[in-house]
Specification:
82 residues; alpha+beta
Length: 82
C-alpha cells in the first residue's frame, strides 16, 4: 500500500512534513499532516498554518502511485522466480 508520505514526496521531493496517524479523508488530513516552514533558533520545527497540497491532490497522487505499483506486480513476482 502506498502511504500518504510517499504521495506527498512524489508531489514535491523537498517537502518537509510531519504525519500523525493515517489520514483517510480531508478532515483527518487537515488535522494529522503539518508542513514545516523552517526551524527556530533551537532547531524546533515551525509549522505552516496552511497545507502545501490539498487532500484531493494527495489522494489522487496516492491512487496513481498505487495503480503503478499494482501494475508492476508481475515483475516483482517474476523476479522472485529467478
Amino acid at each position: 500500500m502506498i502511504d500518504i508520505a510517499k504521495a506527498i514526496q512524489a508531489l514535491d521531493s523537498n517537502a518537509q512534513f510531519v504525519i500523525n496517524g493515517t489520514p483517510t479523508n480531508e478532515a483527518e488530513y487537515q488535522a494529522q499532516v503539518k508542513y514545516v516552514s523552517g526551524a527556530d533558533e533551537n532547531g524546533t520545527a515551525i509549522f505552516k498554518d496552511t497545507q502545501d497540497f490539498t487532500w484531493e491532490q494527495v489522494s489522487a497522487k496516492q491512487t496513481e502511485l498505487q495503480a503503478e505499483y499494482d501494475a508492476e506486480e508481475w515483475k516483482r513476482n517474476r523476479q522472485a522466480e529467478y
